[in-house]
Amino acid sequence: MDCHNCNRSCHHAGRKHRRRFGFFWQKARKEICEEKLLKIALVGSPNVGKSMLFNALTGAYVTVSNYPGTTVEVARGKTVIHGQEYEVIDTPGMYSLLPITEEEKVARDLLLEEKPDIVVHVVDAKNLGRMLTLTYQLIEAGLPVLLAINMMDEAEQLGLIIDREKIEKELGIPVVTMAAAQNAGINELKERVAEYVKK
Amino acid sequence: MLKNRIKYPEPIEKAIAEIEKLLTVEYKLSKRSVALLLLQKDEALLSEIAKKEPHYQEILKVIDETQKQFKEPLSFVIASARQEFALKVEKEALKEKGTEKASITEFLHRLTVNPITGIPIMFLILYFGIYKFVGVFGAGTLVDLIETYFENNINPVVNQVTAQVIPWKVLQDLIANDYGIITLGIRYAVAIVLPVVTLYFLMFSILEDSGYLPRLSLLIDRAFKVIGLSGRAVIPMVLGFGCDTMATMVTRTLETNRERIIATLLLALAIPCSAQLGVILGLLSNNPEALLIWAGVMILVFLLIGYLSSQLLPGKRAGFYMEIPPLRIPKLKNILTKTYVRMKWYFIEILPLFILASVLIWIGKLTGLFDLIIKGLEPVMLWLGLPPQAAQVFLFGFFRRDYGAAGMFDLYQNGILAGKQLVVAAVTLTLFIPCIAQFSMMLKERGTKVTLAITAFILPFAFFVGYLLNLLLTVLGVNF
């Protein structure tokens, strides 16, 4: 197992507990660490297809609906890319790093506590401009962000054409386009995730 | 400077640099990000640095000084700067060529949100989708079919077999006869609740995936404002018609604690869950007038209590802000999977409870406790103009909403409940206490104090409304 990554993901987590449990905690923590998975967190505003993507990646089933705010609890599952196991975390929707509702707070806390190895920001291709503000905030926060532009099929129906490379250049992070409902672009996303984490 | 970094207006960049210098502790976010969140007055972070940072006061001063240079709140200034950057990227990377398709969905969208066309559409969907499909077909035709099969083929066999295999009458009663695990618990679950809930979940999934529900929220937003809830609260309310327990959990998407309490109260009081709704629809569908009275009382109670609680609870009203997803043609596979998953989850959850209820009733009967409670409830039943047998229906209602409703269905088919009694019983049972699952979710989401207060209000209130309705119907001489 690649322990370099796992040190990184364990280092800051659980500081509060460590203080409380002292020596014991440190020891227990280390043991967990050795089996630690790489973590992929899916974030984005409500109703952009995070849960759909989660299902596509993990083969598990969480309820997917065309209704914002249906994921209020965190779902976890596993996926394998090139023989490497990853933990995938589906989060409730968030519009910005500055939380207004409780669900947004849950999503932010999760993002900060879990220290994911990669944060996949899922956005709706039809509302790119509005959603990129969160991408900027995630980059600002120093998180390892990958932008996944979802619902390309619907955007195409609306006659929207998106220049992926241009966005990649502007933002300086990897960008993939996909249509999770059609299962399109999932493999490319996996490739890019693996590439990103290796760096 | 990094290319992908947003450049904020000069005074803000200056403030960020100053705060970054004043921060001494390591955070989970970059210092730039922490500084920006502080400038936007993020409460969690402010209280965190108050404890950790030695230069807390200086940081606050920087924030104040910066704010003085702008007319708008800093959070607004920062958000606009970001928006500007994001729109610039979008403009550069996005080409648009308009097509026909967009205008058709736009037209449909307008139809559903405009009150003039939207309200008739809502009633059409309620009538055909819910009433005809779930009520008449599901709770009527299907339930009859399965019930009859159970009563003619399964119950007699079970009764006979247990009578032969088990010599003790006491144990026979646990499995068979009037309140047995198979003859009552499983029969209720499979024959009454299963068909109704399956059809309801199917319908609900279609509505959900088509994107109709958020438009419904938009449509009813105005009515909700009156009762102190924003349109956002429509989400848990609509979900409540699926399952109140799930909906109680979703109330955490509401913005203020005040809204969450009002929504939780209304869910516990006036929103029947799918199983209950289905059974009640089936029960009353032979009497359209009775159904109208039931629905009327529910709406009245909903509005009245909503209004009163919004007047009594302190706090400010929340604004409405919700993403409207596009209208889509639902995918059959997604709908079937969803219906199946919900069904499975539901069935796994209720079956043990129904069986447990049978066992509890058995124990209760054995110890005489059951009869004692029923004896205690009987005067209340008479007070409501209901037959004494209805007492056990209410007792069942404690276990699960639908269990009580299913019991009512049983009484109706045996001709014990009739006419206006049906309406009174349906109204009281709908208002009556939430099921165990919802109750525990309320405890989890709202805390013990609020939950107990809500329960203490609902119990007497439900019986009071039932009493009032019975009185009113008697005085007006209404019967069916």
TrEMBL record, chain A:
<keyword id="KW-0547">Nucleotide-binding</keyword>
<dbReference type="GO" id="GO:0005886">
    <property type="term" value="C:plasma membrane"/>
</dbReference>
<dbReference type="InterPro" id="IPR005225">
    <property type="entry name" value="Small_GTP-bd"/>
</dbReference>
<dbReference type="InterPro" id="IPR027417">
    <property type="entry name" value="P-loop_NTPase"/>
</dbReference>
<feature type="domain" description="FeoB-type G">
    <location>
        <begin position="37"/>
        <end position="199"/>
    </location>
</feature>
<keyword id="KW-0342">GTP-binding</keyword>
<dbReference type="InterPro" id="IPR030389">
    <property type="entry name" value="G_FEOB_dom"/>
</dbReference>
<protein>
    <recommendedName>
        <fullName>FeoB-type G domain-containing protein</fullName>
    </recommendedName>
</protein>
<dbReference type="GO" id="GO:0005525">
    <property type="term" value="F:GTP binding"/>
</dbReference>
<dbReference type="InterPro" id="IPR050860">
    <property type="entry name" value="FeoB_GTPase"/>
</dbReference>
<dbReference type="InterPro" id="IPR006073">
    <property type="entry name" value="GTP-bd"/>
</dbReference>
<dbReference type="Pfam" id="PF02421">
    <property type="entry name" value="FeoB_N"/>
</dbReference>
<dbReference type="GO" id="GO:0015093">
    <property type="term" value="F:ferrous iron transmembrane transporter activity"/>
</dbReference>
TrEMBL record, chain B:
<dbReference type="InterPro" id="IPR050860">
    <property type="entry name" value="FeoB_GTPase"/>
</dbReference>
<protein>
    <submittedName>
        <fullName>Ferrous iron transporter B</fullName>
    </submittedName>
</protein>
<dbReference type="GO" id="GO:0005886">
    <property type="term" value="C:plasma membrane"/>
</dbReference>
<feature type="transmembrane region" description="Helical">
    <location>
        <begin position="419"/>
        <end position="440"/>
    </location>
</feature>
<dbReference type="GO" id="GO:0015093">
    <property type="term" value="F:ferrous iron transmembrane transporter activity"/>
</dbReference>
<feature type="transmembrane region" description="Helical">
    <location>
        <begin position="223"/>
        <end position="241"/>
    </location>
</feature>
<feature type="transmembrane region" description="Helical">
    <location>
        <begin position="345"/>
        <end position="368"/>
    </location>
</feature>
<feature type="transmembrane region" description="Helical">
    <location>
        <begin position="291"/>
        <end position="309"/>
    </location>
</feature>
<feature type="transmembrane region" description="Helical">
    <location>
        <begin position="452"/>
        <end position="478"/>
    </location>
</feature>
<keyword id="KW-1133">Transmembrane helix</keyword>
<feature type="transmembrane region" description="Helical">
    <location>
        <begin position="380"/>
        <end position="399"/>
    </location>
</feature>
<dbReference type="Pfam" id="PF07664">
    <property type="entry name" value="FeoB_C"/>
</dbReference>
<feature type="domain" description="FeoB cytosolic helical">
    <location>
        <begin position="8"/>
        <end position="95"/>
    </location>
</feature>
<dbReference type="InterPro" id="IPR041069">
    <property type="entry name" value="FeoB_Cyto"/>
</dbReference>
<feature type="domain" description="Nucleoside transporter/FeoB GTPase Gate">
    <location>
        <begin position="347"/>
        <end position="449"/>
    </location>
</feature>
<keyword id="KW-0812">Transmembrane</keyword>
<feature type="domain" description="Ferrous iron transport protein B C-terminal">
    <location>
        <begin position="292"/>
        <end position="342"/>
    </location>
</feature>
<dbReference type="Pfam" id="PF07670">
    <property type="entry name" value="Gate"/>
</dbReference>
<dbReference type="Pfam" id="PF17910">
    <property type="entry name" value="FeoB_Cyto"/>
</dbReference>
<feature type="transmembrane region" description="Helical">
    <location>
        <begin position="179"/>
        <end position="202"/>
    </location>
</feature>
<dbReference type="InterPro" id="IPR011640">
    <property type="entry name" value="Fe2_transport_prot_B_C"/>
</dbReference>
<dbReference type="InterPro" id="IPR011642">
    <property type="entry name" value="Gate_dom"/>
</dbReference>
